TrEMBL record:
Name assigned to this protein: Helix-turn-helix domain-containing protein
Region of interest (Disordered), ranges: 1-89
Record lineage: Bacteria, Pseudomonadati, Pseudomonadota, Alphaproteobacteria, Sphingomonadales
Amino acid composition bias (Basic and acidic residues), ranges on this chain: 56-79
Record's compositionally biased regions (Polar residues): 16-34
Source organism, top-level taxon: Bacteria
Length: 308
């Protein structure tokens, strides 16, 4: 058995190689031949599992959703980033939903005009050709610098094309918004549920959500739940669906946010909230009517939607 020395003061122990599946998993000290404390603990856990007729579940793959970094328990306040949509009524909730969808559709059309597919294909082909030339070496003096200068804008254009909204993103956003509770803002559908409503593969949903998040239409917090294996030699927590929320004012690009605010204000006016206004920072005279002040506050809350 090939061994690698691990020095621990004077009593160095030897740990066998585990580079292949058949390698031994028990470690022994070189002086006494006794197993390490870790091995003893593993043996005890295995014995406890045998006595209770339980076994450890898979760490990865089907049947196991390993908790990811920056995840919170579903009962943790940080896993509940929601806020009421407008005043919580169906009318204002639908206005918010339609404003998001309309602004997303406009951004999709803008991206398609500014970075058409043909232009992106040409950029990728040119990028690959220049990269191959640079990697080949043996270039004349100054050619490498010229290539790098040409690669920089091509790389930026390709990245812009990669992040631009796709048609499937609009379907995914529409499907996601069907799950929102306007009264509370609660929104935590599983990826599979979104995929079913959007009629697309879950991988398409994952990619679409990333692009929508990049453009500020949605955001989310990862959540975990208990597995119910308390006291057992088995995983105690696993990943569950994300908690989605809207942080549009801070996440959207300024022009996208301004357009979204305009659309939302127009829809609010159609609902009868004539006091709805876009994001003007100019001071206004104090409004005496309590009802009008309440309407303005609701519109401001929807436009700000820092926590909705």
């Amino acid at each position: 058995m090939r061994a690698v020395d691990d020095t621990v003061s004077a009593g160095a122990f030897v740990r066998p190689s585990t580079s292949h599946p058949g390698a031994d998993t028990m470690s022994y000290t070189s002086s006494t031949g006794a197993p390490s404390r870790r091995d003893v603990a593993n043996l005890l856990k295995g014995a406890a599992g045998a006595l209770t007729k339980t076994r450890r579940g898979p760490d990865q793959g089907e049947g196991r959703r390993v908790p990811r970094r920056d995840s919170y328990d579903q009962d943790d306040p940080r896993a509940k980033p929601w806020g009421r949509i407008g005043d919580g009524t169906t009318g204002e909730g639908l206005a918010h939903r339609e404003a998001l969808l309309t602004s997303a559709e406009e951004l999709f059309e803008l991206g398609r005009r500014e970075t058409p597919a043909a232009k992106l294909r040409e950029a990728r082909a040119r990028f690959d050709a220049l990269s191959a030339e640079l990697d080949a070496g043996g270039l004349p003096v100054g050619r490498a610098a010229t290539i790098r200068q040409e690669l920089a804008p091509l790389r930026e254009l390709i990245e812009t094309g990669r992040q631009r909204l796709q048609l499937v993103d609009l379907r995914v956003l529409k499907a996601l918004l069907r799950f929102v509770d306007f009264k509370t803002g609660r929104l935590f559908p599983a990826i599979e549920a979104i995929a079913a409503k959007a009629a697309c593969h879950r991988n398409s949903v994952v990619a679409a959500l990333r692009r929508l998040k990049h453009h500020g239409f949605i955001d989310w917090v990862r959540r975990t739940i208990k597995t119910g294996n308390d006291g057992e030699f088995a995983p105690q927590r696993e990943q569950t669906s994300n908690a989605y929320f809207f942080d549009n004012r801070r996440r959207m690009a300024p022009k996208v946010w301004q357009r979204f605010a305009q659309i939302l204000a127009a829809k609010m006016r159609r609902l009868g909230n004539a006091a709805a206004r876009a994001m003007s920072e100019a001071p206004t005279a104090e409004i005496q009517s309590p009802a009008l002040r309440a309407a303005l506050a609701r519109v401001d809350a929807m436009l700000a939607n820092a926590n909705t």
